[in-house]
User: Which sequence fits this backbone?
DNA sequence: TAGTGGTCTAGACCACTTT
DNA sequence: AAGTGGTCTAGACCACTAG
């Protein structure tokens, strides 16, 4: 028998569909424009709605689409560059893109954070919740874990919510933090994060874990969750060409 | 009418299922252990297979599970820390975790890369494919775009594949690169990337775009795709506590 | 109230790996 | 050949938004 062609693995329908839609997004639609609804699109391409949704899921994961329940599917703007590099240690900051403390959380740090805090985790750990927005849209929610030992000067423990949160961060800021140790991984939004980020629980997020050191010790640990659909994290000497 | 409870939004089945499975993974299973197959699991929890798969999808996205067609679903080991920070500019390196050039690609850079290369994109651009492995498993595939102007000393353009790839990188290494400009965003693996990473097309990846500068000009641009399921990217002064 | 995306079902077949 | 995960269907109902 003659050698046949290498079998030509059939491309999944949703994969092909994604390419077609991707091309159409570039040539036939403007940013912000509403696409036909899923039932119409599925019919138009002759596939089941679930199959169409597989293609849309991927495009949304890549930040090309934005879907809102009860409203529709729109073409997403390019991802916004969010700096998480050297610029961050000036904690509160005051630009439009700064973090906004929203509350003081009463809870135990998760095991992974406790490990990073080391010995400092033995005593009380302050937990501050803060959020970050760009162009009016929330892009990140963060929990900052600060061992009481790191902020001995903290007074007004009687304050509440945002006020107490600010007090903790203000004290932390007095330390000379040289923490440049960070990790980035993929995660899915918890119910709490989802609420802050205006997304559904389980939405894909980029989890940024930062360890701030003062001398040799861990002064604080921050775990930030960034909306993976809308954010492009930028590192290094402040933006540059990649900042977008 | 009396005030009723705040409606108590029903938690999606797959969301609850995920929590249950997540707990079970920690208490009842060892890393590498094989879970019951999807049909059994679905029956055990009294849900459709598609619903169970939604839960498994999320756990896989978080790096808790590993699924292999024809084999089964296993409990994944903790994510491996992969350094993408200051340590990288020593390009080839020779440790176990180094990049391995695998070929020289004949193709035009995508528009986004051309933009980053600036004027240098006008002449020929060398494109090198390289991969990176940890513990025998591939973790990243990268395309390095090097304008011909950046490597004037390049000879042996007659070489092929890996040999030519090495030649290009060797020449690039002669420059004093100070590029610390990087971005990280979520993407899905192309067919090519998927093959290198031993995953299916569309698998979630962390896309790291690096711009290497020499003086003021862009000397090269690298676009790396890291397996989001198995990798935790580490930045900053070489690992430290977060490296894991 | 009508229309949207989100969840869920109960099946079927396919691609792949192992035996 | 048997068993696994991956794809696909054709429905149904729910949660949410807007007119």
Assistant:
């Amino acid at each position: 028998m003659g050698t046949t062609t290498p079998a030509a693995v059939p491309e999944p329908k949703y994969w092909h569909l994604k390419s077609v839609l991707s091309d159409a997004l570039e040539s036939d639609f403007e940013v912000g424009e509403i696409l036909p609804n899923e039932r119409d699109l599925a019919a138009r391409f002759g596939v089941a709605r679930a199959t169409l949704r597989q293609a849309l899921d991927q495009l949304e994961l890549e930040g090309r689409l934005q879907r809102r329940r009860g409203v529709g599917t729109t073409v997403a703007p390019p991802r916004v560059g969010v700096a998480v590099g050297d610029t961050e240690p000036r904690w509160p900051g005051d630009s439009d893109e700064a973090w906004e403390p929203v509350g003081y959380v009463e809870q135990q740090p998760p095991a992974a954070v406790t490990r990073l805090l080391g010995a400092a985790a033995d005593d009380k750990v302050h937990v501050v919740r803060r959020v970050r927005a760009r162009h009016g849209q929330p892009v990140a929610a963060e929990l900052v874990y600060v061992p009481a030992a790191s902020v001995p000067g903290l007074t007004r423990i009687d304050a509440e919510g945002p006020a107490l949160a600010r007090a903790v961060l203000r004290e932390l800021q007095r330390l000379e933090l040289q923490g440049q140790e960070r990790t980035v991984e993929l995660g899915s939004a918890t119910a709490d994060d989802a609420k802050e980020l205006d997304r559904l629980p389980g939405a894909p997020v980029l989890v940024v874990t930062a360890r701030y050191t003062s001398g040799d010790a861990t002064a604080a640990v921050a775990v930030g969750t960034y909306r993976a659909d809308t954010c492009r994290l930028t590192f290094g000497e402040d933006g540059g060409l990649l900042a977008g």
